[in-house]
Amino acid sequence: MKRIGVFVCHCGLNIAETVDIKKVVEVISKHPSVAHVVDYTYMCSDPGQDMIKKAIVEKKLDGVIVAACSPTLHEITFRNAVASAGLNPYQFENANIREQCSWVHKDKKTATEKAIEIIKSMIEKLKLNQSLTAINIPITKKALVIGGGISGMQAALDIANSGYEVVLVEKTSSIGGRMSQLSETFPTLDCASCILTPKTVEVGHHPNIKLLTYSEVEGVEGYIGNFKVKIRRKSAFVDWDKCTGCGLCSEKCPTKVPSEFERYMGPRKAIYIPFPQAVPKKPIIDSENCIYFKTGKCRLCEKQCPTGAIDYDQKEKFIEENVGVIIVATGYDLLSKENVGEYGYGKYKDVIDGLQFERLLSASGPTSGEIKRPSDGKIPKEVVFVQCVGSRDPEHGMPYCSKFCCMYTAKHALLYKHAVHDGQVYVFYIDIRSGGKGYEEFVQRAIENEKILYLRGKVSRIFQDDRDDGKLIVWGVDTLTGKKIEIAADMVVLAMAAVPNVGVKELAKKLKISTDAHGFITEAHPKLRPLETLTAGIYLTGCAQGPKDIPETVAQASGAAARAITILSKPELELDPLIAAVDEEICTGCGVCVEVCAYKARELNEITKIAEVNEALCVGCGACISACPSNASIHKNFTKKQILRMIEEVI
Ligand code: FAD
Ligand code: SF4
Ligand code: SF4
């Protein structure tokens, strides 16, 4: 029989005011399994812990119960104290007589009786506790970052600068993400490329970063500390090792198609480097538009290339990387035109989205920074900005706020006025959300100094009036005055809802992580674990989780990197052994547990057809235990027998 010691804490008056500690000690000391009982004002204090350690040695205890606060507070403190006295830490139990007793009762007699029952039930549990040891798992000291926008780059740099290797996978041919398309950034109006380029260059040259652009994750196996990742390197039809990035190939290429980087407002060639500061500065051939791929003739780029880098036969390659942690930084896209037909987006050339306006503002954009109408190149004198296009709109399936549109619309309006002094700007808005350091001041500056007319209300329709120089007629309502509004505009800029990047759902499936109702990656806990997914070792950052601006994205990226480094910096992963196990004798191999496990910690052994627990993935949530129809699924030190004994004791 175990010799159990019970240590009753007063927690100042938190417990002692409602629970009669003397009575508890008196009753518990008579329990046949209890060899020692003592009470103390603060058990978690150093003298309190010393009292436990001394008693373990002197009274030869082989089980310890501390009756105190919730295990979330001090379970680890007491486990460590018990272990330092030479006892297995899993021969310790925490009886919660504060949150579950003294704090929720007023009547001292009832509370005292309940405290006694709680302790007695824990004695029953402890009697059947096994001595367990922590699970040690080796860690591959390398990280994978998926997505090379500002969030992925920041996370990669933080990890690489801490001395760990990083593989950065980006699906386009260069890094930088959406930020590389921006002109200036709110609220300080720094030039986006001036603050981004040093980062892209640092990533491109960092000795600890292996940059794989034009690549995608094909499959992921394994678990925290030991992921095996298959990566597909798409074929650029250019040998990047030979290419010097001189650009002669693009110069001579006869094919012109709308550039994705310029949001289709400027041309690119069939062989192209997406923008001048691209990292890596290497071209790819767009085989769908290349004349040679379509007709078998041309090969002009091959003739121009001084290094013989063009390789029309280049095949895609698959490579494998072993990594210990993964960070998902796949960013966002803007809602596509099909979803907002009533605003004429995609139908009228001068109805554009926010990123298109960024390209018009950009000195390296299709108009060299001059704001011109896409239809005829004239300077627009009346511009209407419409916020919340799709966002905060359950009808379009996006009830959420896209968070950065209020700010970038104010920025757009301000920059437009800086460029076109006699221009008139109207902004339709629902609310102005400007929470952030210096943000409200920025919006006020736009409204007051630049005389931008903010109209509270929604736009119902935008259509073209062919009689009036092709002006765009904007119909809306000013909800503050209740008046209908009609504006004849030269250009309309829509602040489209931010949506998850294409392909993120498929990627999430490969990574075995979940997405929310809108397709953004779900965090493990919105408040307490916002940087982690539910799969151990996989973290998330930036707009992959939901729309957010650059400062928030960068902060989150550094946070996710710090979480990843806490894993990489350990010699081995030490995991809590209080997880699920399988009684192989009675498992029927039905597989129910495999289906219910949200953490993918269950598998059926292909040969024995018996369920197995991946100890690295199991978090001990207990879903498989309640689902198992054969009682073969068990929770270590929380078996059905223990639970029944505890209940019997209480009732
Ligand atoms: P992204 O920039 O979207 O980067 C994600 C990267 O991941 C991309 O390179 C993408 O190709 C890659 N990727 C996606 N899927 C995969 C995959 N499966 N595999 C590999 N790679 C993948 N914020 C400010 O703070 N100030 C501003 O002035 C400002 N202006 C803005 C103006 C407009 C019009 C818009 C729309 C946004 C603006 N923002 C601004 C917000 C800013 O763009 C975002 O905060 C920032 O880009 C988020 O960075 P990210 O890395 O999370 O995502
Ligand atoms: Fe590279 Fe050759 Fe094109 Fe120059 S011409 S950018 S070396 S592929
Ligand atoms: Fe075995 Fe139970 Fe899982 Fe079925 S549910 S496979 S019986 S452990």
Summarize the structure.
With 651 residues, the chain is α/β, with parallel strands linked by helices.
Question: How would you sum up this structure, described in words?
Answer:
The chain has 651 residues and is of the alpha/beta class. The protein folds into 5 domains: 4-127, Rossmann fold (3-Layer(aba) Sandwich), CATH 3.40.50; 142-234 and 316-331 and 501-568, 3-Layer(bba) Sandwich (FAD/NAD(P)-binding domain), CATH 3.50.50; 248-304, no CATH class; 332-499, FAD/NAD(P)-binding domain (3-Layer(bba) Sandwich), CATH 3.50.50; 578-635, Alpha-Beta Plaits, CATH 3.30.70. 27% of the residues lie in helices and 24% in strands. It has a 5-stranded parallel β-sheet. A 5-stranded parallel β-sheet has the order 20-27-21-22-23. It has a 4-stranded parallel β-sheet with strand order 2-1-3-4, with helices on both faces. Strand 8 and strand 9 form a beta hairpin. Helix 2 crosses helix 3 (71-84) and helix 5 packs across helix 6 (192-205). The radius of gyration is 32 Å and the shape is elongated. Bound molecules: flavin-adenine dinucleotide and iron/sulfur cluster (2 copies). One iron/sulfur cluster is lined by residues 238, 243-249, 283, 304-305, 307, 309-310.
